[in-house]
Structures are given as C-alpha cells and as structure tokens.
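User: For a teaching handout, I'd like to show students what a predicted protein-ligand complex looks like in token form. I'll give you the sequence and the SMILES for zinc ion. Please answer with just the structure.
Assistant: Understood, here is the input followed by the structure.
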Amino acid sequence: MAANQAKNPIPAPPRRRIMGRMLTATCHCGAVRVEVPDRPASLTDCNCSICRRYGTLWAYYEAAAVRVIAGAGATAEYAWGDRRLRFVRCAHCGCVTHWEAIERAAGGRMGVNARNFEPGALGEVRIRRLDGAATWEYLD
Ligand SMILES: [Zn+2]
C-alpha cells in the first residue's frame, strides 16, 4: 500500500490558493447582485440619519474586492450633503444594496448591505453599533 504509493508517486495537486468563501448579496427581485470575497469580520448597525431609515447592516470591504452585477438602468442612487458617498438601491424592488465613494480612490472602502445575504450565510457574525449620528464611535 504505502510501497505502491512510493513506486507510483502521484504528482501533488497544484497548491490551491487559499480563497475566501465568496458570498453574494441580492436584492429582493434579483436584478442587483453584490459579490464579496468572504464573510465580514463584523457588521455595523449605524444610527445616522440615513442608515437608521434604511435599516441597513453594513459589511465593509475594500471597494476593489467587491463586484456589483447589475444591468444598465437596474440601479438608482441617493447622495446628499457633501456628496462623497452614494447609496445604491435596486431601481425595481427598492432594496438598498451598497454604498460607495462617488470618487473612487485606491484602497477605498465600500459598504455592502448584509441584509441582502441569505439568512445564515454569515453565521455568527458580531453586530457592532456605530454612533454615526454623533460621535462616529462604536458604542460597544
Ligand atoms: Zn431588485
């Protein structure tokens, strides 16, 4: 058995890159999909004026690591104030899918609405409460 293996060595398979477990968030109607490379380390529940209204839970990623798949005209967006970010939603079903910088910079982040992942896809990910309304500090 072991001797046989020694006589006919099977080449080792190429080393697989250690890949994250890619996850896809979809809006309710499926017109907008957001692919992320892995589970987030934590989620953020922010109390700022927009997040509390949207009821979003944010998973943050480097923007370059996220792929948004949506046809032309499938999304609508909202920006206000200093207009550095836009909140993107499905133009058909209205689900908020992500926010992104209006002017992308290298290494910039984006927020993906984790409410759009299938229940259970994230496992036991910690939800952190961010005081985006006032101090910009985590409350826990
Ligand atoms: Zn939709």
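For the handout, you might add this sentence: The CA atoms of residues 68 and 128 lie 25 Å apart.
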